[in-house]
Design brief:
481 residues, alpha/beta, Rossmann fold, 4 domains, 4-stranded parallel beta sheet, 19 helices, 11 strands, 48% helix, 9% strand, elongated, binds glutamic acid
């Protein structure tokens, strides 16, 4: 097999849509599986949207996901530059070639003339598709009174153009539906189809993967390849990601910008796993490591119908990935989420490292982990409901007794604490629940937490006793309503 060269070619919009990420992912997996080349190309010809900031979002998103590119921005490569706005000379050259071969022509029509022609057409054809018939298609002389022109493709009117899509199978389009589409604007900016073809062919792309909203562009692109005498690449058109209600997934339905998932505390591998499965399957396996995805991905099992976004399943996949992440890694990744809630901690903080194994099984995201370890590292904050229910005068003395009891426990470890505290409860005929919940609220501020003795061990003796005593005082002075 010849070398696999695939590309992801986003147009920066200010965020990288998870549907786009899935397209990038499948190409990336294919490249990595085949030891091929993954190219990142920025289609920045829409100068209003392609700000430095929106380009940065694309790069940051790809980097965060670990979808590394072999050629592209900041990395370079033999076929650069990798920004379309820096390749204008190349488009001009190719346009010249098409002009010379008669496959393109200069069209001097003004916007107004085209609009008038469209109106006239629709007067007699309420429905039919309008196609602008440029007088310059058939060789009219350039007008004397204007010099601005666009370069149009001289589309064939006979026959049809088709391809065997990797996902959608055979697609054929009659040529008489094609427009004489514009290749270059007067300012030298290419239109999408032309820029894409020149880039894919000069970059040696072997498979172009993109959303199926581009199916309509593929026949025009193949016509351009033919006119240039070049074999087109293969094409894979990915079904859109849909919302649960079947609409195209947008901001109205869910977080669609991939960095939003980073900020919610999702792991890149979980995002890739979830998106990979949204449209591709490998038996009934749901959870994949990155390496497994690379090994197991296959175009044969990419479905041709759209996958629906399922927030619950996404969270489940995230949870599963968090479970298997080593504790030290969870600690390191949790640090920025702690900073966000005002807790400055280092990744090697012993309290953080001790707490992680207990909170990890109870958390889904890194933000959850940060929240769950917050009372070990920072000040305690009482949830109003738990405080009102459990820190009441009748529980005050139990909290003091508990504090006194554990004063002499050595080593201050959960097994020993368990033994001593349970012995004391039995001797005093106190049910566990009478003491456990008030103590939990006293130590964590909450009614839900890891096991009581685990919490004590992580907090350490001094903090545990101080919190039990402080809570006892609060309880004693609480007024019950
Ligand atoms: N810039 C186009 C997009 O973002 C690229 C389509 C393609 O990959 O050919 O949809």
């Amino acid at each position: 097999m010849s070398e696999v060269r695939v590309r992801f070619a986003p147009s920066p919009t200010g965020y990288l849509h998870i549907g786009g990420v899935r397209t990038a992912l499948y190409s990336w997996l294919w490249a990595r599986q085949n030891r091929g080349t993954f190219i990142l190309r920025i289609e920045d010809t829409d100068q209003e949207r392609s700000t430095a900031k929106s380009i940065q979002v694309v790069l940051d998103s790809m980097r965060w996901l670990g979808l590394d590119w072999d050629e592209g921005p900041e990395v370079g490569g033999e076929h650069g530059p990798y920004f379309q706005s820096e390749r204008l000379g190349l488009y001009a050259d190719y346009a010249e070639r098409l002009l010379a071969s008669g496959d393109a022509y200069r069209c001097y029509a003004t916007k107004q003339e085209i609009a008038d022609a469209r109106d006239a057409f629709h007067k007699t054809n309420a429905k039919g598709g309008f196609r602008f018939q440029s007088p310059w298609r058939d060789g009219a002389d350039p007008p004397k009174d204007r010099d601005a022109y666009v370069i149009r493709f001289r589309a064939p009117r006979e026959g049809s153009t088709g391809w065997d899509d990797v996902i959608k199978r055979r697609i054929d389009v009659p040529n008489d539906t094609q427009q004489d589409f514009i290749l270059l604007r007067p300012n030298g900016m290419p239109l999408y189809n032309f820029g894409c073809v020149v880039d894919d062919l000069t970059m040696g792309v072997t498979l172009a993967t993109r959303g199926d909203d581009h199916v309509i562009n593929t026949a025009p692109q193949i016509l351009l390849y033919k006119a240039l005498g070049v074999e087109p690449p293969k094409f894979a058109h990915m079904p859109m990601v849909l919302a649960p209600n079947g609409e195209k997934l947008s901001k109205r339905h869910a977080a669609v910008g991939v960095l939003e998932y980073r900020d919610m505390g999702y792991l890149p591998d979980a995002v890739l796993n979830y998106l990979a499965r949204l449209g591709w399957s490998h038996g009934d396996q749901e959870i994949f490591t990155r390496q497994e995805l690379i090994e197991k991905f296959s175009w044969d099992h990419v479905g041709s119908t759209a996958g629906r976004y399922d927030a619950k399943k996404f969270l489940y996949v995230q949870e599963e990935h968090l479970r298997t992440l080593p504790d030290g890694e969870v600690a390191r990744l949790t640090v920025p989420f702690l900073a966000r809630i005002g807790i400055a901690a280092q990744a090697d903080d012993p309290v953080l490292l001790e707490a992680i194994p207990y909170v990890k099984p109870r958390s889904a995201t890194l933000a959850d982990v940060a929240d769950a370890v917050s009372y070990f590292l920072g000040e305690i904050e009482f949830e109003e409901k738990g405080k009102r229910k459990f820190l009441v005068p009748e529980n005050a003395s139990h909290l003091v007794q508990l504090a006194e009891l554990i004063e002499n426990v050595e080593p201050f470890e959960k097994e020993k604490l368990d033994e001593v505290v349970k012995g004391w409860l039995e001797a005093n005929e106190l049910p566990m629940k009478k003491v456990a919940q008030p103590a939990r609220v006293a130590m964590t501020g909450r009614t839900r937490s890891p096991g009581l003795f685990e919490v004590m061990e992580v907090l350490g003796k001094d903090k545990t006793i101080a919190r039990l005593r402080a809570a006892a005082e609060l309880a004693a002075s609480a007024t019950t309503h």
